[in-house]
Write a structure and sequence with these properties.
Helices cover about 65% and strands about 5% of the residues. The chain is mainly α. A four-stranded antiparallel sheet has the order 1-4-2-3, sandwiched between helices.
Length: about 525
């Protein structure tokens, strides 16, 4: 115990060297996470091609082979249930689990999660469920970060930085989007701008992105044949697009939680057959509406090419939405990142067509609404406007649309905020915390860690002296960083907005949560 505490204090005393150290470790983690996620992407692409060819054969060969395919889907569903039972932390998106582990709420067995998430994700998404690769990729990256930390015998504070680096590398490799990976780490996982997180996440994201681009090429994920810059005179229409996407995003969040509740409360279907249900629906949709199967990369490209009429776009929007709810609600491994971007693209296509038909906007700009709607929909669901804007910029390869992306994203954010919609991953994390078994929670650890918190503008800590603050029990303020100046705090030291606080505390999630609330409000 004394040795561990000494090591923690040594880490703080040598904080500048520590940041440099995790920067180089981030490069190594980015390489490892990049290789794993690239392999995951490759397996999913092969599964997608195999599934498409299979349905062509099924339509020609008759009922016997079709029944055999549905039997295979039944077996896959039972296998997915068995995998999730073996490792519950590998269920669903994986992003709430990563957030919970980094914040100290969960314990994660990195190797078991890595294996189960990889196999389960390939089976679920490859079989046609409307799930995305990004959530599993983020969790795979975080698991690699934790694995490296455990293999090197790092402290808990370092492990959480390395897990964050791995998560950002996972997103970067999944979408060829290194900047979005970094912003996701800052805006979604840590909720603050930490230089240590920035350095390690940037190193990991760039390295993982290089691995992905070397494997899949340097083309953007989405291919838009014609993407002109939207004229300023059309920006007024972005307000309407933001309103629409904001409302649709709120509906998405509430429907997703409702789907999870329906699955957990239903009694007519045995638990072990729950994953079979969406797979059977997917098997039917493969013959009548195959475009809604899988993550949806190809569907966005078809929308960009103008392949669908307005009526078909509406059918695809409703079909993709409902099938995503049915797929994710079952709890099998798979994310919602990509499906929500596809839903945004479909909504943008519908909005663009309506503007063209009724307000006589030049149809040349329909794809602009498709791109902008993806960012707006993402923002309304996740409530991370900066990450959404940068993500779509990198995925489309068009930096000229950044002003429009920011404008429509902020509009959608305001709408979702006014409708009191919570960020989906925060909601899913809270739901997981309420349902998780006690042995998966880390509430009574005896170790010591250094907690880094930034004092936000308007925080109750700002302009107060250290001795006047009611600090949580079992913690000690050991350092303040103000710009490049490092301050050893005393009782009369005044805390200012923008200060980074370094607190030595027991390794308990409740202390971390209490400090975060004090620094934020």
């Amino acid at each position: 115990m004394a040795l561990k505490k000494s090591n923690v204090l040594t880490t703080f005393i040598n904080w500048r060297d520590f940041r440099l150290k995790i920067f180089f470790e981030g490069i190594f983690i980015g390489l490892a996470a990049g290789i794993v996620v690239v392999l995951f992407r490759y397996m999913l692409e092969q599964a997608e091609l195999l599934r498409q060819r299979l349905y062509v054969v099924l339509e020609m060969r008759g009922i016997g082979l079709i029944l055999l395919w549905f039997a295979a889907l039944f077996v896959i569903g039972c296998l997915l249930y068995w995998l999730v039972q073996k490792e519950p932390m590998a269920s669903g998106s994986g992003i709430p689990q990563v957030k919970g582990t980094i914040s100290g709420h969960f314990k994660m067995n990195w190797l078991r999660v890595l294996v189960v998430k990889f196999i389960g994700g390939v089976l679920a998404i490859g079989a046609g469920l409307s799930l995305g690769r990004e959530g599993p990729s983020i969790q795979l990256g975080a698991a690699m970060g934790q694995g490296v930390s455990r293999l090197l015998g790092r402290l808990k504070i370092e492990e959480r930085y390395l897990m964050t680096s791995g998560a950002s590398a996972g997103l970067a490799a999944a979408f060829n989007a290194p900047l979005a990976g970094v912003m996701f780490a800052l805006e979604e996982l840590h909720k603050s701008f930490s230089p240590a997180v920035l350095m390690s996440a940037m190193a990991a994201s760039l390295t993982a992105d290089l691995v992905a681009r070397e494997s899949f090429g340097q083309k953007p994920i989405f291919h838009f044949p014609s993407l002109p810059v939207l004229p300023l005179k059309y920006y007024i229409y972005l307000v309407g697009l933001g309103l629409v996407c904001g409302v649709l995003g709120v509906i998405f969040n509430r429907a997703l939680i409702k789907a999870l509740n329906i699955y957990s409360e239903q009694r007519w279907l045995p638990r072990k057959f729950v994953p079979v249900f969406p797979l059977m629906i997917g098997g039917i949709l493969g013959f009548v509406l195959p475009e809604v199967l899988g993550g949806g990369n190809g569907l966005v490209d078809l929308v960009a090419q103008g392949r669908f009429s307005l009526v078909i776009l509406v059918v695809l929007l409703v079909g993709k939405f409902l099938f995503t709810m049915v797929s994710y609600g079952s709890g099998v491994p798979g994310g919602i990142f990509l499906p929500m971007l596809v839903l945004g693209a479909l909504a943008g296509g519908i909005y663009g067509n309506l503007m063209t038909h009724y307000l006589h906007i030049n149809p040349h700009y329909i794809n602009d609404f498709v791109v902008l709607a993806m960012a707006a929909y993402f923002t309304a669901v996740v409530k991370a406007p900066v990450t959404g804007s940068i993500l779509i910029t990198e995925m489309t390869g068009s930096f000229q649309h950044l002003p429009g992306l920011i404008a429509v994203s902020m509009t959608a954010y305001l709408v979702s905020d006014l409708l009191k919609s919570q960020p989906i991953y925060e909601t899913l994390l809270a739901r997981s915390l309420a349902k998780k078994s006690p042995d998966s929670l880390t509430t009574q650890e005896a170790g010591k860690i250094i907690i880094e918190e930034v004092v936000c503008l308007g925080s109750g800590l700002a302009a107060k002296r250290v001795k006047d603050i009611a600090w949580p029990p079992h913690c000690l303020l050991v350092g303040i960083k103000r710009g490049e100046k490092e301050i050893i705090p005393k009782g009369n030291t005044k805390i200012l907005a923008g200060d980074f606080l370094y607190v030595l505390a027991n390794e308990a999630a409740e202390i971390k949560d209490a400090l975060s609330q004090m620094a934020a409000h």
